[in-house]
Amino acid sequence: MKILSVKHRPLTSLILIILSCQVSQAANPSRSPTHDSSVMIVTAPASLPLEVITSPKTPRQPVPASDGSDYLKTIPGFSQIRNGGTNGDPVFRGMFGSRLRILTNNGEMLGACPSRMDAPTSYISPENFDLLTLVKGPQTVLWGAGNSAGTLRFDRETPRFDKPGIKGTVSALGASNHRQDTGLDTHFGNENGYIRLSGNKSRSGDYRDGNGKFVPSKWDKWNSDIAIGWTADSDTLLEFSTGKGNGEARYAGRGMDGSQFKRDSAGIRFEQSNIGETFDKFEANVYYNNANHIMDNYSLRVPTRIISSGESHCKCARARAAALVLKSDPRMAMQLDRQTLGGRTMGTWLWSDYELRSGIDLQENSHRSKSYRHWKKDARFQEQGIFSELTWHESEQNKLVSGARINAIQVDNYSHPGSAKRSATLPAGFIRTEHSLADIPMMFYIGLGYTERFPDYWELFSPRFGPEGKKDIFDHLSSEKTTQLDLGAQYKDEQISGWISAYLGHVNDFILFRYSPSDAAVSQADNINATIMGAETGASYQLTDNWKTDASLSYSWGRNISDKRPLPQIPPLETRFALTWEKGNWSSTGLLRVVSHQSRIALNEGNVVGKDFNRSAGFALFSANTRYQINSAVNLSIGVDNLFNKTYSEHLNLAGNSSFGYSAKTSVNEPGRTFWGKVSVKF
Fold first, then answer.
1. What are the residues facing 412 on neighbouring strands?
2. For tag attachment on the chain, is the N or C end more exposed, with fewer CB atoms within 10 Å?
3. 324 pLDDT higher than 50
């Protein structure tokens, strides 16, 4: 594991890695350099109209991601509620939180912070996974109920060896603002089994915006995982895995920082394929995840008096302010944890024209807080589900897919006087038809889905008030019911490819947060009815053998039909254009990102993390990168984000915290011009 020490001397380490691989190639002339066919993602990964499948190991721009949410920005329709340098909260099609189910290796990692400082994606290092799959909307029932926005899965593929060997990748990154990343993912074994080791470390200092002002945003985090697998034959797998991680992050948009993001994970999975003529496959897994989170206002900042925004970025003013610790603003800290235990079994049956996947899943997660060295549990969620999904291949051109699920959920509220319980039965289902044209490489689909989502921990336990101002939120906040129509098309030939994915939905009892204009900490969770719609589209055109252009566009719209005003926290129209040149081992890309203004807001309304506090201006950014495939093993990339040093902020944003001199309605600016370089090695 000495390779991880490159964090201390990143440039020297890059050179050593490159030279070692050059020597390795010289010693083995049979390994001639080949061009890496993977293309840097700048506008969108290749996708089906309804499904996006990509590898998180594929390089992308902007600068390589620090967490799972950051990586998702390259998928049209995704945005983030931003609060600084890392650990933003993902939003898909304007939908936030548990409307988007996020899984890692078929398990769920839930954060502990009541205000989602540690979103589930905060614990995900994308490059430690092989496959990222997004299913849009309620168009699958295989992975739980309530996934009205979509289902997102990060998975590791099973290493297979015909003979003893070792495979893997190692990478190192250096960038502006003292950004340093190192990563290792290696597996070795033989035809009977394998051991896989993966780990990474990522750190960065505070960045400067386009005006050269510091934005408190530094972070330091690491992850490590090990998996041991037994492969008795090509159809059998038994795997044991465990992992740990930790980190810290400073937030310009919060009153406290994250001084601990401790993760403990463990899992077992079993798969058996090609069992019989009809019963084809059986798979099962059990997982355990624990998030132990500490937030405070002193380890990464000093509690200060409020200073003017003009003084806040002056070094001497910051030094003076750091010494002005008020008695009315004492040191504060809070430690919380979330333990999640779950499992799943599923069987696959095949007939001549039919495929049936059916199974059961269950999960229990509990939330605690620590006070005076004692842990106190405040909530427990228990959920059991049964599901089936049937695919009918009617002909070569036509396919019909349908599914149904029913979930039983029970929640215990230990913070309620005398304790309280709630239970519910949640149905979900969909039907979709797909048609491919016989003479044209084009496919169409249309599907109708329905799902119910029980209020999550953040909606039941974080607000101060419930519907109609009631203090008893637990008993009065209703489940969401989403009915959504999804439709789209895809076209692909040798020169042109394109796709479009559109949706129209109605949500009964949409859970909305309302904030007090005078006190941002006072919130009310309410149920309203809403209409949502939008689309994502993308296209690429191979101009010549060396030149290719790509474009993507995403648009989301929502309306609170109960109160006859816009739905809050909806991202604006966004489009991306890219022009790529490739020849031999070289490739270069220019990327233009254009984001429209957003004037459709609902002032002081939003979700547990963010609210609409102002309209936002549009902006345009230009970035560029160059890649060189040094040999069959070594790939070098350099790039610059925000080339013209634009000062801008995203619409989905947190207002800057007064501890750093921000006013109540000042959004946090994004990084200015950022240079980066990365080397990755496959072996």
1. 380, 421
2. N
3. no
d(C-alpha 423, C-alpha 455), whole Å: 11
Residue of 335 and 310 predicted with greater confidence: 335
Distance of CA 672 to the CA centre of its chain: 23
User: In this structure, are 218 and 257 located in the same domain?
Assistant: yes
Tokens 């998996």 map to which residue? 227
204 and 319 within one domain: no
pLDDT tens per residue across span 209-230: 999 999 999 999 999 999 999 9
Domain encompassing residue 316: 298-328
Mean pLDDT of 592-602: 97
* Same domain, residue pair 319 and 236: no
* Secondary structure string (H, E, C) spanning 134-181: EEECCCCCCCCCCCCCEEEEEECCCCCCCCCEEEEEEEEEEECCCEEE
β-strand partners of 528: 510
User: 288: Cβ–Cβ under 8 A, 6 or more apart, which residues?
Assistant: 264, 265, 266, 267, 339, 340, 341
CB within 8 Å of 540: residues ≥ 6 apart: 496, 497, 498, 548, 549, 550, 551
- For the segment 49-88, what is each residue's pLDDT rounded down to a tens digit? 789 998 888 777 888 788 888 889 889 999 999 877 899 9
Please give the Cα distance from 226 to 197 (Å, whole number). Answer: 5
Q: Is 673 exposed, middle or buried (0-12, 13-18, 19+ CB in 10 A)?
A: middle
Q: What's 396's domain CATH number?
A: 2.40.170.20
What the block records as the tokens of 636 is 């070098």
Handedness of CA 514, 516, 521, 522 (dihedral sign): negative
